[in-house]
Amino acid sequence: MFSQIGPMEIILVLVIALIILGPKKLPEAGKSIGKGMREFKDSLAGTDKDDDERELTAVRSESRERDAA
C-alpha cells in the first residue's frame, strides 16, 4: 500500500504539516496520531485497558481477602 511512497513524498508531507500546524503543535499532533494508532491496534487485538484494570483490581481484592483470613 505504501510501497510507492518515496522519501521525497514523506518530506513533502512533513513540510506541509509543519506549515499548517506550526512548530509548537506538530509534536502534539504526532503524539495524538500515535495514541490513536495504539488504541486502534489494541482494539483489533481485543485488549482493553479497562478490562485489564478490572481484572487486576479483582485479583488484588482476592489476595487481600486471603491474607486477612
At a glance:
This protein has 3 helices and no strands. It is mainly α.
Low-confidence parts lasting 5 or more residues at pLDDT below 50?
none
Name the average pLDDT: 84
Derived from helix and strand composition plus strand pairing, the structural class reads mainly alpha
Number of helical regions:
3
Spatial shape: elongated
Total of domains: 1
What is the alpha-carbon Rg in Å? 21 Å
Largest sheet: none
* String of helices and strands: HHH
What is the beta-strand fraction?
under 5%
SSE map:
Elements: H1 7-21, H2 26-45, H3 49-68
Description:
- It is a single chain.
- This protein is an all-alpha fold and 69 residues long.
- Helices cover 80% and strands 0% of the residues.
- The chain is built from three helices and no strands.
- It has helices at 7-21, 26-45, 49-68.
- It starts with 6 loop residues before the first helix and ends with a helix.
- The mean pLDDT is 84.
Keywords:
elongated; mainly alpha; 69 residues; 3 helices; single chain; 80% helix
